[in-house]
Amino acid sequence: DVLTMNNNGDGLHMSYSEGSITINSTVFSGNRDHGIRIYSLGGDVIVSDVLTTNNHDDGLFCYNVNGDVTLTNLSAVSNNDNGIRLSTITGEVGVVEIESHSNNDHG
Fold first, then answer.
1. Within 13 A of 57's CA, how many CA atoms are on the CB side?
2. CA spacing 20 to 30 A to 89: which of 8, 41, 68, 71?
């Protein structure tokens, strides 16, 4: 099953945590801010089988992550800013099967 997140802020917002996060089989669409916003995280970020589309800001925004970021089968299309924005990642970044296009800034 696929969960759809559509609201008036970020679709998913996680910050100031020492743990890791896994996001799987989810659609983030039509949010007023980012589809997914993760920052100041002390663990790993794993995103798989996710679509971010038509969000007002970035589809996926990861900032200040002190772990690995793994993106698998991620589509970031038609977002108002970047499709995928990664910044200040201290671990490894791995990407497999990424689709990012038709965004108003990068990707």
1. 17
2. 8
- The low-confidence residues of the chain, meaning pLDDT below 70, are 1
CB 83 within 8 A of CB 107: yes
User: Is 0.90 topped by the overall pTM?
Assistant: yes
Rounded to whole angstroms, the Cα distance separating 99 from 51 reads 9
Cβ atoms of 52 and 35 closer than 8 Å: yes
